[in-house]
Amino acid sequence: MDYQQLIEEVYREVQAENLKGKVADYIPEIATVDPNQFGIALVDLKGNLYGVGDYLTPFSIQSISKVHTLTMVFHRFNSKLWSRVNVEPSGNPFNSIAQLEYENGIPRNPFINAGALVITDALCSKFENPLEQISAFINEIAGCDCVRINQAVMNSEKNNAARNTALAYFLKSYNNFENSIEEVLDVYFSHCAMEMSCVELAKTFSFLANDGYSIYANREILSESHARRVNALMLTCGFYDEAGEFAYKVGLPGKSGVGGGVAAVMPHKFSIAVWSPELNEKGNSVKSIRALELLTDKLAFSLF
Amino acid sequence: MDYQQLIEEVYREVQAENLKGKVADYIPEIATVDPNQFGIALVDLKGNLYGVGDYLTPFSIQSISKVHTLTMVFHRFNSKLWSRVNVEPSGNPFNSIAQLEYENGIPRNPFINAGALVITDALCSKFENPLEQISAFINEIAGCDCVRINQAVMNSEKNNAARNTALAYFLKSYNNFENSIEEVLDVYFSHCAMEMSCVELAKTFSFLANDGYSIYANREILSESHARRVNALMLTCGFYDEAGEFAYKVGLPGKSGVGGGVAAVMPHKFSIAVWSPELNEKGNSVKSIRALELLTDKLAFSLF
Amino acid sequence: MDYQQLIEEVYREVQAENLKGKVADYIPEIATVDPNQFGIALVDLKGNLYGVGDYLTPFSIQSISKVHTLTMVFHRFNSKLWSRVNVEPSGNPFNSIAQLEYENGIPRNPFINAGALVITDALCSKFENPLEQISAFINEIAGCDCVRINQAVMNSEKNNAARNTALAYFLKSYNNFENSIEEVLDVYFSHCAMEMSCVELAKTFSFLANDGYSIYANREILSESHARRVNALMLTCGFYDEAGEFAYKVGLPGKSGVGGGVAAVMPHKFSIAVWSPELNEKGNSVKSIRALELLTDKLAFSLF
Amino acid sequence: MDYQQLIEEVYREVQAENLKGKVADYIPEIATVDPNQFGIALVDLKGNLYGVGDYLTPFSIQSISKVHTLTMVFHRFNSKLWSRVNVEPSGNPFNSIAQLEYENGIPRNPFINAGALVITDALCSKFENPLEQISAFINEIAGCDCVRINQAVMNSEKNNAARNTALAYFLKSYNNFENSIEEVLDVYFSHCAMEMSCVELAKTFSFLANDGYSIYANREILSESHARRVNALMLTCGFYDEAGEFAYKVGLPGKSGVGGGVAAVMPHKFSIAVWSPELNEKGNSVKSIRALELLTDKLAFSLF
Question: Which domain holds residue C96?
Answer without folding.
Answer: 3-299
